[in-house]
Structures are given as structure tokens and as C-alpha cells.
């Protein structure tokens, strides 16, 4: 008997383009939501775009979050209970979007994502990534009901945050390789659609790498569309598998071992060079990944990440210890081999 079921949750409205922030009210109107919105933001996006958002709604409330933590989710949930919003509007980078995503889930309301930086694909996905002590939790939640990505605003955001978004997309190459490996060796559920979409998204970004430049709205357009596709791939898969493999495990370990030194996207980009080498050896695509990252001004070495060689090696040798996700690093890599791959790829110096 055929008993397979799939439940794909996707945003209903995705609006990307020039000055679309001013169409937020209309896009939200099409969702037939009721009640007042609670705008969840952080200081900088609130300064940049808070008033433009508030002007489009009757009686909006605002909560400004300052860090991404479970306490911040609890605080926001408490604030929201007092405000009794019909829905949340997350305005900003990954921090307010992740917090709003989880709080919306706790409150049983929907949320709309209004990214002000194109820093990673969490701005459109149904997962939050929250650090706690020595570990980091990837928490499932519903994806946004709508995504409103204003390319005018995104093109003005700090360039390094955009290059981090690009690198997060490039890392999809190795994430999909890990997923396929897990299917072959552990029979994990694999979606051809999600795998192909994720890979194609990375390819499109690399093909357009020469037109991704600071301050250009066209560049913000290419990057944010790629982030949306990657988020959709995760929604189809029902997990972050299409966009998160061993390179993300290494990055999560770097967050713990060398906190706040580099951006998520930059870390997964460098880690992707390493895991591609591990998958395919010296003749694989690791140099192509490195060159694409370099073309996009993203880091390609531990030094460019601001991370010590020893920290990089510690993250690589311990990445398999976190999370039950089969990858090329299953069983771990010893220090000698880690130094060899990091040296061969030029990520650490000889
Ligand atoms: N859900 C997921 O899959 C993932 C989630 N994450 C999470 O996302 C967060 C990191 O994402 P990131 O986007 O870097 O986080 P932030 O939201 O902290 O944004 C990065 C910085 O950019 C500032 N900023 C936001 N918009 C603008 C703008 N338009 N112009 C200038 N500055 C701006 C912010 O200001 P301010 O300091 O005032 O907020 C902040 O300093 C972490 O909490 C991480 O755990 C990371 C990867 C994946
Ligand atoms: O960053 C992500 C995808 O790019 C999400 O990955 P995690 O599930 O590893 O947090
Ligand atoms: Zn990522």
C-alpha cells in the first residue's frame, strides 16, 4: 500500500524588487490576516525602515530585539501576549527574523519576512538557528506567509553581509552531495526536486558571480532570488538538508570555538571548499568553489575569516560530534588528515 505523505509549506506572496517595501501593506492585505501587526526588528533596521513599515498599518506595535537566544524568543512571546497581535512582521537580518519565526510558532500566528540584509537563506526558510551554550539548535517552524525583499534597501546594506548570503548559497553544492551520500549509505529520505533546485540555485549564482557587485540593485536581486529558491528547496524537503551538510556542521562548531569572528555564510563557504575536497579529492570542484567565493569577495582562508588555524582544525575534527546528520564527516576526520586537507586547499598555511 502507498502510504507516503508530504506537506510542503511555502510563502504565499514573494515580492522582490525596487522600493517594494512600500507595497508591504498591500501584500499583507492579500493574505487576509486580521488583527494588528507586531513588528519585530532590531535597532539598525528599525532606524532604516521601521517608520516606512509602521506607516502602512493601523495601530502597529513594535518590539526591538537585540540578540538571538531562547530568552529573546520568550521575552518576545511575553510582549506579544500583551499586544495580542494578529501576525508578526519580521524586519531586519537573521536575528529578528529567527526570533519572530519562533515566537510566531509559539503564539500560533503567521509572520511576514522583510529582510534588510541578504545574509543567509534563513530569511526565507522555515527554520531558526539559535545558539545555546556549547551548541546550536536548528528549530523547525513555519516559513513566512510572505517575503517582501526590497532590492533598493538590500543594495545599500553592508556588502560583507551580501557576500555572506552568496557564500551560503554556494555551500548548497556540498550540502546536496552530503545529502546524496546519506541516501546511498543510510537510506535517508531524499527529494530529487529539492536537491535539483538547491544545486541549480548554487549554479545560477556562480554563473552570475561577475555581475554581483557592491551597491548594485541587480546584484541584490540575483542574491535574494537565490536565497528564496534555497528556502523553497528546504520547504520542499521539510528539512535544511538541501542547504546544510558537513560544511554547516563545521560552521556551527566555529560559532562555538571562535564565536563572533566571522559571518555564517562566510564560514560555510570556506568549509564547503574543505568538504568538496573530502568528497572528490584534489581533482574535484574545490578550486572552482574557492574561485567563485573569491570572485564574490567572500573569504577563502582561515585568516580571512579571522579564525586561527588551530580553531579551524578543531572545528573540522569535531564537526561530526554535533547533530545526527550523516555527512562526509561521519565518524570524524583525525587531526593529521584535517591539517592535510586544509593545507592542500590553501585554507591554512603550510
Ligand atoms: N534560520 C537560519 O537558517 C539561519 C539563521 N542564522 C541566524 O541569523 C543571525 C545572523 O544573521 P544576520 O543577518 O547576520 O544577523 P543580524 O540580524 O544580526 O544582522 C547583521 C547586522 O546587520 C545589521 N543590519 C540589518 N539590516 C541592515 C541594513 N539594511 N543596513 C545596515 N545594517 C543592517 C544588524 O543591525 P543590528 O545590530 O542593529 O541588528 C546587524 O548588526 C544569527 O542569529 C544566526 O544564528 C544564521 C544562519 C542560518
Ligand atoms: O543555514 C542553514 C541553511 O543555509 C540552516 O542550516 P542548519 O539547519 O544547519 O541550521
Ligand atoms: Zn546556511
UniProtKB/TrEMBL annotation:
<feature type="binding site">
    <location>
        <position position="264"/>
    </location>
    <ligand>
        <name>glycerol</name>
    </ligand>
</feature>
<comment type="pathway">
    <text>Membrane lipid metabolism; glycerophospholipid metabolism.</text>
</comment>
<protein>
    <recommendedName>
        <fullName>Glycerol-1-phosphate dehydrogenase [NAD(P)+]</fullName>
        <ecNumber>1.1.1.261</ecNumber>
    </recommendedName>
</protein>
<keyword id="KW-0479">Metal-binding</keyword>
<dbReference type="GO" id="GO:0046872">
    <property type="term" value="F:metal ion binding"/>
</dbReference>
<feature type="binding site">
    <location>
        <begin position="116"/>
        <end position="119"/>
    </location>
    <ligand>
        <name>NAD(+)</name>
    </ligand>
</feature>
<comment type="function">
    <text>Catalyzes the NAD(P)H-dependent reduction of dihydroxyacetonephosphate (DHAP or glycerone phosphate) to glycerol 1-phosphate (G1P). The G1P thus generated is used as the glycerophosphate backbone of phospholipids in the cellular membranes of Archaea.</text>
</comment>
<keyword id="KW-0443">Lipid metabolism</keyword>
<keyword id="KW-0520">NAD</keyword>
<keyword id="KW-0521">NADP</keyword>
<dbReference type="GO" id="GO:0005737">
    <property type="term" value="C:cytoplasm"/>
</dbReference>
<keyword id="KW-0963">Cytoplasm</keyword>
<dbReference type="Pfam" id="PF13685">
    <property type="entry name" value="Fe-ADH_2"/>
</dbReference>
<feature type="binding site">
    <location>
        <position position="121"/>
    </location>
    <ligand>
        <name>glycerol</name>
    </ligand>
</feature>
<feature type="binding site">
    <location>
        <begin position="94"/>
        <end position="98"/>
    </location>
    <ligand>
        <name>NAD(+)</name>
    </ligand>
</feature>
<keyword id="KW-0444">Lipid biosynthesis</keyword>
<feature type="binding site">
    <location>
        <position position="121"/>
    </location>
    <ligand>
        <name>substrate</name>
    </ligand>
</feature>
<keyword id="KW-0560">Oxidoreductase</keyword>
<dbReference type="InterPro" id="IPR016205">
    <property type="entry name" value="Glycerol_DH"/>
</dbReference>
<keyword id="KW-0862">Zinc</keyword>
<dbReference type="GO" id="GO:0050492">
    <property type="term" value="F:glycerol-1-phosphate dehydrogenase [NAD(P)+] activity"/>
</dbReference>
<keyword id="KW-1208">Phospholipid metabolism</keyword>
<feature type="binding site">
    <location>
        <position position="168"/>
    </location>
    <ligand>
        <name>substrate</name>
    </ligand>
</feature>
<feature type="binding site">
    <location>
        <position position="264"/>
    </location>
    <ligand>
        <name>Zn(2+)</name>
    </ligand>
</feature>
<dbReference type="InterPro" id="IPR023002">
    <property type="entry name" value="G1P_dehydrogenase_arc"/>
</dbReference>
<dbReference type="InterPro" id="IPR032837">
    <property type="entry name" value="G1PDH"/>
</dbReference>
<dbReference type="GO" id="GO:0008654">
    <property type="term" value="P:phospholipid biosynthetic process"/>
</dbReference>
<feature type="binding site">
    <location>
        <position position="125"/>
    </location>
    <ligand>
        <name>NAD(+)</name>
    </ligand>
</feature>
<dbReference type="GO" id="GO:0006650">
    <property type="term" value="P:glycerophospholipid metabolic process"/>
</dbReference>
<feature type="binding site">
    <location>
        <position position="248"/>
    </location>
    <ligand>
        <name>glycerol</name>
    </ligand>
</feature>
<feature type="binding site">
    <location>
        <position position="252"/>
    </location>
    <ligand>
        <name>substrate</name>
    </ligand>
</feature>
<feature type="binding site">
    <location>
        <position position="168"/>
    </location>
    <ligand>
        <name>glycerol</name>
    </ligand>
</feature>
<feature type="binding site">
    <location>
        <position position="248"/>
    </location>
    <ligand>
        <name>Zn(2+)</name>
    </ligand>
</feature>
<comment type="similarity">
    <text>Belongs to the glycerol-1-phosphate dehydrogenase family.</text>
</comment>
<keyword id="KW-0594">Phospholipid biosynthesis</keyword>
<feature type="binding site">
    <location>
        <position position="168"/>
    </location>
    <ligand>
        <name>Zn(2+)</name>
    </ligand>
</feature>
Amino acid at each position: 500500500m502507498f502510504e507516503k505523505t508530504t506537506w510542503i509549506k511555502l510563502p504565499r506572496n514573494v515580492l522582490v524588487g525596487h522600493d517594494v517595501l512600500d507595497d508591504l501593506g498591500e501584500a499583507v492585505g492579500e493574505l487576509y490576516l486580521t488583527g494588528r501587526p507586531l513588528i519585530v526588528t532590531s535597532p539598525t533596521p528599525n532606524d532604516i525602515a521601521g517608520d516606512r513599515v509602521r506607516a502602512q498599518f493601523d495601530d502597529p506595535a513594535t518590539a526591538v530585539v537585540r540578540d538571538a537566544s531562547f530568552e529573546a524568543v520568550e521575552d518576545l512571546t511575553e510582549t506579544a501576549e500583551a499586544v495580542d497581535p494578529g501576525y508578526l512582521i519580521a524586519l531586519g537580518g537573521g536575528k529578528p527574523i529567527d526570533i519572530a519565526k519562533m515566537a510566531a510558532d509559539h503564539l500560533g500566528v503567521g509572520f511576514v519576512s522583510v529582510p534588510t540584509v541578504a545574509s543567509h537563506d534563513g530569511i526565507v526558510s522555515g527554520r531558526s538557528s539559535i545558539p545555546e551554550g556549547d551548541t546550536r539548535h536548528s528549530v523547525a517552524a513555519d516559513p513566512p506567509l510572505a517575503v517582501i525583499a526590497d532590492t533598493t534597501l538590500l543594495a545599500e546594506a553592508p556588502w560583507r553581509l551580501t557576500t555572506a548570503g552568496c557564500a551560503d548559497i554556494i555551500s548548497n553544492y556540498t550540502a546536496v552531495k552530503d545529502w546524496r551520500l546519506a541516501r546511498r549509505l543510510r537510506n535517508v529520505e531524499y527529494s530529487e526536486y529539492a536537491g535539483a533546485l538547491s544545486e541549480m540555485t548554487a549554479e545560477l549564482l556562480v554563473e552570475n558571480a561577475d555581475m554581483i557587485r557592491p551597491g548594485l540593485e541587480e546584484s541584490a536581486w540575483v542574491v535574494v532570488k537565490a536565497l528564496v529558491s534555497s528556502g523553497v528547496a528546504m520547504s520542499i524537503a521539510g528539512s535544511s538538508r538541501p542547504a546544510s551538510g558537513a560544511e554547516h556542521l563545521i560552521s556551527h562548531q566555529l560559532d562555538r570555538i571562535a564565536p563572533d569572528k566571522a559571518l555564517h555564510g562566510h564560514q560555510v563557504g570556506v568549509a564547503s571548499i574543505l568538504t568538496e575536497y573530502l568528497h572528490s579529492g584534489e581533482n574535484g570542484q574545490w578550486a572552482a568553489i574557492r574561485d567563485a567565493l573569491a570572485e564574490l569577495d567572500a573569504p577563502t582562508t582561515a585568516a580571512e575569516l579571522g579564525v586561527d588555524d588551530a580553531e579551524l582544525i578543531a572545528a573540522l575534527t569535531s564537526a561530526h560530534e554535533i547533530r545526527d546528520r550523516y555527512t562526509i564527516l561521519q565518524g570524524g576526520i583525525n587531526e593529521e588528515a584535517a591539517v592535510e586537507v586544509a593545507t592542500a586547499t590553501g585554507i591554512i598555511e603550510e
